[in-house]
Design a protein that fits this description.
heterodimer; A: about 100 residues; mainly alpha; 2 strands; elongated; B: about 130 residues
């Protein structure tokens, strides 16, 4: 959904884009499995195409779901950052106190 | 290349294949042309196809119990056929004691599985009717 937020893309372009911004390489089966699920849920829709490389775009519902998901992620990032700052403030020497802890 | 892609698509549910076949094959071609297609992508195609089978929605008139019962009935039918075939094959008076034991076990297995399958089917039918 994030990849389609900037405009319609076909499968290969989506795959390249996701690899570029997220560092995740999706196999063709995984990508099309996801696309078909998103289409089934009404979050994306195919556009007319002259060739077999059919572009997809976000629907209004897809846009709304993406906004909610990003908002939830933002909350988690902000909360995590706050707690990390607090934790660092309470442990003056992280090299000693955090040794052996799980990151 | 296309023929190989078509072969991989056999792992996908028919309805899905009919809808996305051309697009998925085009994507695989793009992966190959850009040098991005690897062996793990072939495995990914098979895995995704099997996963889609699991996720494919079954019409609501078949409940979970109904599907389990249908499988049991299918197994029972297979065992009955197996039992019948082995009885037929050992009808000649040369059956050793081992073969005889296998036949008896097959027959008993068929009877038990058949009865179990039939009971499960009846229970599932009743359950479906009471849910309506």
């Amino acid at each position: 959904l994030t990849s389609l937020a900037e405009g319609p893309k076909h499968g290969h372009r989506l795959s390249q884009d996701i690899e570029e911004f997220a560092g995740v390489r999706l196999g063709p089966g995984t990508l099309y499995g996801a696309l078909s699920r998103l289409e089934q849920r009404g979050l994306i829709e195919p556009l007319d195409s002259d060739n077999r490389r059919r572009p997809y775009r976000l629907t209004a519902a897809g846009l709304a779901v993406l906004e909610v998901s990003l908002s939830e992620l933002r909350t988690i990032v902000e909360e995590g950052s706050t707690r990390l700052r607090l934790g660092r403030a309470l442990t003056p020497d992280p090299e000693i106190d955090l040794r052996g802890s799980v990151p | 290349v296309r023929r190989r892609g078509e072969r991989v698509l056999r792992w996908y549910p028919r309805a899905w294949r009919e809808r996305y076949r051309d697009e998925l094959l085009a994507l695989v071609e793009d992966y190959r042309e850009s040098g991005r297609f690897r062996f793990r992508d072939r495995l990914d195609l098979v895995r995704a196809g099997l996963q889609l089978h699991r996720r494919t929605k079954v019409p609501s008139r078949f409940s979970q119990r109904g599907r389990v019962a249908a499988r049991l009935v299918g197994c029972a039918a297979a065992l009955v056929v197996f039992g019948a075939v082995t009885v037929d094959a050992t009808a000649a008076p040369v059956a050793s004691s081992t073969t005889h034991s296998i036949v008896i076990a097959g027959e008993r297995g068929a009877v038990v599985a058949g009865a179990g399958g039939a009971a499960a089917y009846v229970i599932a039918r009743r359950s479906n009717n009471s849910n309506k």
